[in-house]
Predict the structure.
Amino acid sequence: MAGSCDLGQTHGVSGSEGDVNAMPSFIESPFPTKVAYAAWLSLPTVEKPAALAEAEALYAPRPVLPPPTVAVLRNDDLARHVVSFLPLSGVAVVLQLDRGFFALARERVAVMWPKLSPLLEEPFNLTHRDLVWMECLNLYKRGIGDGDLRVLSEACANELLSQLKEIKLRWNQVGDVGLSSLADACAKGSLPALEVLDLYNNCIGDAGMVSLSEALGKGSLPALKLLYLNANPFGDAGMGKLSEALGNGCMAPGACIWLCGIKATEASKQAVRDATAAIGYTVFF
């Protein structure tokens, strides 16, 4: 009998086709996500009251959350495809997971954001999309100094940019302090996918090279294939530490290292040649 279902009257849902337009909106419904609400809407009309009652039993009223300060990337098409094959019990599980993961993700963003937000500004000028998907960080001729590299290194040290495969810092003003901070981040294993490190034409001396070499010696950059150190003012002390690290096979097989224009003696250069000859690295002087 039309209109005899209390649930339909309360929520605007009944067994009759004429009441379809009176269905509750997403905000009025007990469903915690739009995906779940859409799945409920797709049910036959006669099944909606029972499904709504089950949802009300499963979920407390939805908390009103403040809008996130950072855009959340979601693949709604994929989610819709997956959920479309689930029974209502499966949808209920997804809803619980979705609500829990969303809350945890927001907590994680709140922790990460103070480290990442400076990279949106000068001299980096990255975008939100860069922070999520970028694999090549090209900072060629940006006037990057030690302070700037410390900012970048802090983000790397917290494994917030672990997807990076290339860091290009050529033609900047990176010195020993800046390179040491990046080396410390590398030593924590925070850049496991890094394949290219380009430090051509900076201000790196022996102290910076010692720090980088020690990080390399720990096997912290196992994927590194190309290392550009040419046109920097380090000498024998830095070259000696680098020779030790390279001799331990600290880079990827077949790696190439550029050391042109380095202020080191021929003896130091020969030590690097000897250390890398059996490993199969190529060194350019």
About this structure: The first strand starts at residue 136 and ends at 138. The beta strands are 136-138, 166-168, 196-198, 226-228, 256-258, 282-284. The chain is about 45% helix and 5% strand. Confidence is low (pLDDT under 50) at residues 1-21, 68-73.
